[in-house]
Amino acid sequence: MGVSTPALPSVEYDDINPGMGTLNKEPKSKGTSKRGIHFNPGDVLFGKLRPYLKNWLFACFEGVAVGDFWVLTSSKIDHGFTYSLIQAPEFQYIANLSSGSKMPRSDWGLVSNARTFIPTNLSEQKSISSVLFGLDTAITLHEEKKCLLERLKSALSQEMFANKNGYPAVRFEGFDKAWKQSKLGEITKVIAAKPYISTPSTHGNYLVIQQGDKPIAGFSNSNPFKNYNNITLFGDHTLSLFKPRSPFLVASDGIKILSPSIEMNGLFYFYELEKYKPKSEGYKRHFTILKKCKANFPTDIDEQKLIGSLLLRIDNLITKQQLKMDKLNETKESLLQNMFI
After folding, report:
1. Of 337, 305, 301, whose CA–CA distance to 91 is shortest?
2. Which CATH superfamily is domain 119-179+298-341 in?
3. Could you tell me the CA-to-CA distances from 21 to 58, 81, 121, 132, 233 in Å, in that order?
4. What is the pLDDT of residues 277-318, one digit of tens each?
């Protein structure tokens, strides 16, 4: 056991990014005099409370693990291999055979007695951990890039849209006119559309749009009831805004088809601003409430387009970073499945 000091920082559950094995804050910036398990550089911290949360860390510094951690160390195998091993499906399966219902914890009696295969060659152990550490580093770098882009987008969204005085804090060169105040319902026409009931498939020429966290339900080869261009979909519940880029079919009554009188991308990002996200009971967004909100919009269509295209470009970069992360995570999962016996 040990007590944290300015020179011996503490690590708690809240400090770890689950499943990533990284810290979300500087350990030495935290408070001191916290009691926990002393660890050394190279030791592996494994969160035994709710092990499915994947609170694990490869220690690069000396410190104190505060909370329900195992501190794993070994004089017989490479420490990096130990860190890779705890992420493997076989170890995760045993670790999640936990005891307790409300506060499940991994059972050391089960974990410590579980047999596993270990390479007898230390170089092979190090090679396996080196590959997985390399993937972790790449994933972390892409995550950091994505976070920077998201912060940039958030900052621009706050500064490039006009406040109550009708002027934005930041705008493109050559534009100096005051923005015009309008209700969202005055500049946005709602197109009535009967939902197309279809059984979506994985292939087809037309998107099938639904409510929910995954707006694309699938595809269909049936002809859509109407081919809308330059429109945005608004979901009354969890769909938020969705801009289809091809002919589509609607599969939900909760989706509004909006045809605004201003440039599309600018309106799309305007809707994303937090101050224009009124919430009703159950935290559901409703267009009947949103369309009554007053806001300022550029009177110049070119300024509308520039704002929309800039934010769209940042969005595309964010999407690319996410796709790279997804690919790297898929590669890591595949290696964890196949590099251990």
Report:
1. 337
2. Bipartite methylase S protein (1.10.287.1120)
3. 7, 14, 26, 12, 38
4. 544 444 455 667 667 777 788 888 899 889 888 988 998 899
180-296 and 2-117 share a CATH fold: yes
Lowest mean pLDDT among 31-45, 86-100, 236-250: 236-250
pTM for this entry: 0.74
| AA identity, residue 262 | I
For CA atoms 333, 334, 335, 336, the dihedral sign is positive
Question: How is the chain split into domains, by residue range?
Answer: 2-117, 119-179+298-341, 180-296
The string of pLDDT tens digits covering residues 172-187 is 999 999 988 888 778 8
* C-alpha angle 146-151-155 in degrees, rounded to nearest 5: 150
**2-117 classified as CATH 3.90.220.20:** yes
Complete edge-to-edge strand list for the sheet that includes strand 248-250: 216-220, 206-209, 248-250
| Best CA proximity match to 341, nearest among 120, 58, 139 | 120
Which two structure tokens, joined as six digits, stand for 105?
């914890």
For the segment 103-133, what is each residue's pLDDT rounded down to a tens digit? 889 999 999 999 999 999 999 999 999 999 9
Query: Do β-strands 63-65 and 10-11 pair in parallel, antiparallel, or remain unpaired?
Result: parallel
Rounded to 5 degrees, φ, ψ at 75 are -100, 0
Per-residue b or e along 252-273, where b marks 16 or more CB atoms closer than 10 Å to that residue's CB: bebbbbbebebbbbbbbbbbee
State the DSSP string of 177-195: PPPEEEEHHHHEEEEP---
- The CATH code belonging to domain 180-296 is 3.90.220.20
Residue 333 burial (CB count, 10 A):
13
Range with top average pLDDT, 15-19, 25-29, 283-287: 15-19
